[in-house]
Amino acid sequence: MTAISVDLLISARWTIPVIPKGKVFENCSVAIDQGNIVAILPTAEATRKYIAREQVELPQHALIPGLINAHSHAAMTLLRGYADDQPLQTWLEKYIWPAEGQWVSEDFVRDGTELAIAEMIRSGTSCFSDMYFFPDCAADVASHAGIRSQIAFPVFDFPSAWGRGPDDYIHKGLQLRDDYKDRDLIRIAFGPHAPYTLSNGPLETIATYAEELDSCVQIHLHETAKEVADSLSEHGMRPIQRLVKLGLISPLAQCVHMTQVDEQDIATLMEHNAHVIHCPESNLKLASGFCPVKTLLDSGINVALGTDGAASNNNLDMFGEMSTAALVAKAVSGDAGAVDAHTALQMATINGAKAMGWDDQIGSIEIGKSADLAAVALGTIESEPLYNPASQLVYTNAGSRVSHLWVNGAALMVERQLQTINEQEVLIKARQWQRKIAHGN
Ligand SMILES: [Zn+2]
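That is the input. Now the predicted structure with zinc ion docked in place:
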């Protein structure tokens, strides 16, 4: 038998493919050619069957699908720790929006997004969703870094450094969508900020375009009790009902937060096959409330996971987010069995892919899918003794032990060394921004 040549063969002690759920393969190899997974087989067999241009041995590592951060504001990483310990409305109105008004520019977004991507790669994220001003700059930085992304361009009623108002935002966003239509790693989505920052007109326009273009829509929804109460008094209905009336709740909808959920809201999410993006650390930090994840999952609703911006988290580590999601789900439901380690891994991988309509290509280690993979070095003090690799990944702060990351078969990190981003330059720029922002000029 002649050996088949492939680009890359990764042999890991443990492989957790996510699909099928709960499976852990030992001493398996993943063969990759032209960016795609072509085989998953025992390492002994793989070394006979394949000749790889590059071979990576991971003797004490777990290989998993790259994590998918389904909600972030990457450039806000420059405001990490700028304003802590405030409730959402005060945090936004007194601190974040004024700082953004003063500082947000193309350079701010480029430097902040690069810092965020460096952090995400270092903690095993191969795909992220972004929602921020100057999405063209974020898309450009993501493209150079080689990371996969959904760039949801923001739409508000009010003007910003990036645009004059809703029509201008939508116009620019559609142009961006056109510019990136042939790119494999970047998808442009609509990012109407929230029901309370948008009037009916632009929301309806977005619903029409999204349906016509089959494009995802990401929106902050039911983040706080105040948002729901204000909507009841202003519009006579809960925010999600208002969005249903405007045509925005559909399988294309990614509803971020959903901490305030009643039975009717669950029925609405089910009826329209809408997705929920759960951001537990941001919700905890801003004291926004608790998303009833177990109830949503039990109802068959797809729940993905996001970090939200680093200004309200304050990190972009999806391993930490998995742990928090699992712990909070148990506390909220009073059920220690809620969101076990494999469910948390699903939420951080395949569920994010489903929310973005990308599950045909990413979110699991399966033949035919893109080789978006992360390796985590176990066998350290923090992860021994090892009875169950999935448990170590979710419950032991494994983010800092990510050793390798690939997107579409290309290495973005090898032995914790970034391959596409200059770490020193990123650090220098972050410190320059800190000095400017702290001094207010
Ligand atoms: Zn957010």
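The chain has a mean pLDDT of 97.
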